[in-house]
Amino acid sequence: MSIGEIVAIALAGLAAGTINTVVGSGTLITFPVLLAFGYAPVTANVSNTIGLVPGSASGAVGYRRELAGQGARALRFGAISVSGGITGAVLLLVLPAAAFKAIVPVFIALALVLIVLQPRLSRSLLRREVDLERKGAVVPVALYLTGVYGGYFGAAQGIMLLGILGAALAQDLQRTNALKNVLAGLVNGVAGVYFAFAAHVDWGPAGIIAGASILGAQLGARYGRRLPPRALRAVIVVVGVFAIVRLLVD
């Protein structure tokens, strides 16, 4: 790799680590950069997924205070996300590379609607004493399908998780974001392990993205967790709209 390629991939990894920790959609930065340097789509996808795993772990650590008291929830939802992530990783090596592209913008748009309406939805559920977290199959199925998508490609997985968790959990958005980081990290992690054994990985860019995303995640945790709920919601919507446009244009 040339110096210019190394620098470009490192900067993309830094930005992706930051954005993934605060919102999600970091893959929409790193994946196109790898494609631009001539990496095959599937190789770029699996190398990117593996590279972003350390950043996901770093972001979860950065949000550890907001994770306090959510251990049992993280384990329960994490098991669902992991099973979805394994399914998606297997599908990536079986299905055509563009299989999810047509429907993903619709999912992101629905997630953004949930995020915007989250305060109103939470108040309504509390008044009606509806517990989406523990009753019914809506949340588990939604988390599983998001895990499938995350293992398959992953761009805007975090936004989808925030939409689902924000609507289901009556808690501060920053605490929900902390849980999102754990679930997205588990999906990326299990997919990365599978790819390491079952797919062709280019370890050069994966390593560069890994190192840069760790630093980016700490930056995201340091500044993102200080945002008030309204400001964080606005950032999520802006990034989500960008993700939709990017996916539709590419």
Walkthrough of the structure:
This protein is an all-alpha fold and 250 residues long. The chain contains 10 helices and no strands. Helix 6 crosses helix 8. The longest helix has 26 residues, at 173-198. The mean pLDDT is 85.
The overall average pLDDT, rounded, is 85
| Percent of sequence in beta strands | under 5%
Our measurement of the CA-to-CA distance between the termini, rounded to an integer number of angstroms, reads 25 Å
Mind summarizing the main beta sheet? none
Rg from Cα: 17 Å
Poorly predicted regions: none
Helix count equals 10
Number of strands: 0
Tags for this model:
single chain; 250 residues; mainly alpha; 78% helix
Question: How would you summarize this macromolecular structure in one to three sentences?
Answer:
With 250 residues, the protein is mostly helical. It has ten helices and no strands.
Question: Could you give the topology of this structure?
Answer:
Elements: H1 3-22, H2 27-36, H3 41-62, H4 71-92, H5 104-127, H6 138-152, H7 157-168, H8 173-198, H9 203-224, H10 229-249
Helix pairs in contact: 1-2, 1-3, 1-9, 2-3, 3-8, 3-9, 4-6, 4-8, 5-7, 5-10, 6-7, 6-8, 7-8
